[in-house]
Amino acid sequence: MKFTQISILIKPNKKPPYFIGSQLRGALGYALKKVSCINPSFKCEGCFSVSSCTYYQFYEQKNSFHKYRFDFELGLEYYDFNLYLFDEATKQLPYIVSALHMMLTKNGLGRERIIYPDFELFINGEQSLKNGELHLPDVYIKKLQINDIKKNITLVIKTPLRIKKENNFIRDDRLELKDIINSIYQRQMQLLGKGYKKFPYSIQGEIVKKDLHYKELTRMSNRQKTTMNLGGIMGKIEIIGLNKECYEVLKVGELIGVGKQTVFGLGKIKVKEAWWVSILIPLYMIQNIKDLI
User: Fold this and answer.
1) What pTM does this model have?
2) How far is the C-alpha of 169 from the C-alpha of 166, rounded, in Å?
3) Given this structure, which CATH class describes domain 2-143?
4) CATH class of the domain at 153-277
5) pLDDT tens digits, residue range 8-65?
6) Exposure of 192 by Cβ count < 10 A (0-12 exposed, 13-18 middle, 19+ buried)?
7) Distances (CA, A) of 220 to 26, 110, 169, 225
């Protein structure tokens, strides 16, 4: 999986919204259209350049899978977020960085259009904004590498996860490992332009503990003039006995996100090695024995 990570850090006087995904995506779209549009009418419909337009591909193209996502945590005291570009979208880095710079220094964020002339910008961890000037690294496309394989993990769901089961979004602890694995794998295939493909390996791994809750979250769609529900599952899942293929898919999910509306920053997960396993597994085995008796 090819990707580019753009990271931005701003220490404003005013605390940002609890959920910044909608604000960031809307502001980026407004700036990106200014940066990339060459049509005098400034309209996408009937435009002669849609096949090569970054804004159109990121925001207007129908029946397509957007190859980017915002990444952040909820409720921070300041702006600290990533924007990931995937596969062919990595080639659009100059347009995206220019749009982000315009978004923060000229257009502003929020209803008050607050500008932030003083911020830090990194590309794949390398500082790329120095003395107010942008400097892109010579090589900025990375490839995800997964080295160590962990069989026992804690899966932390850090922003609302929206996955459908039987045509309804899961709102409780019915969330299972296979739901997560399949969601990540299908998203990966779509990002790679391969369409639907069944996960080709057995799903091995046992959930031994869940600590999940449903988080309500909404956004106002200026285009549709309506409130949209972005609520989903958050919390922790403790898993033992993962096979190599499932662990690797979960690590891919750390990068690309899981479920619906990942472009807004939803479905952010973190895979952590299980420090608790030496304590929990014996207790779990004892409980199973008691159940059998």
Assistant:
1) 0.91
2) 8
3) alpha beta
4) alpha beta
5) 999 988 899 999 999 999 999 999 999 998 887 778 888 888 888 999 999 988 878 8
6) middle
7) 11, 12, 20, 7
| Domain boundaries along the sequence of the chain | 2-143, 153-277
Q: What is the spatial distance between Cα 143 and Cα 192, in angstroms, rounded to a whole number?
A: 13
CA-based nearest residue to 141, from 121, 124, 120? 124
2-143 against 153-277: fold identical: yes
| Tally of CA atoms within 13 A in the half-sphere of 157 that contains its CB | 27
Residue with tokens 């605390």: 15
Q: Return the exposure string of 15-40: e unless at least 16 CB atoms fall within 10 Å of the residue's CB, then b.
A: ebbebbbbbbbbbbbbbbbbbbbebe
Reduced 3-state DSSP string for the chain: CEEEEEEEEECCCCCCCCCCHHHHHHHHHHHHHHHHCCCCCCCCCCCCCHHHCHHHHHHHCCCCCCCEEEECCCCCCCEEEEEEEEHHHHHHHHHHHHHHHHHHHHHCECCCCECCCCCEEEECCEECEECCEECCCCCCCEECCCCCCCCCEEEEEEEEECCEECCEECCCCCCCHHHHHHHHHHHHHHHCCCCCCCCCCCCCCEEEEEEEEEECCEEEECCCCEEEECCEEEEEEEEECCCHHHHHHHHHHHHHCCCCCHHHCCCCEEEEECCCHHHHHHHHHHHHHHHHC
**Model confidence pLDDT, tens digit, residues 173-206:** 899 999 999 999 999 999 998 888 889 999 999 9
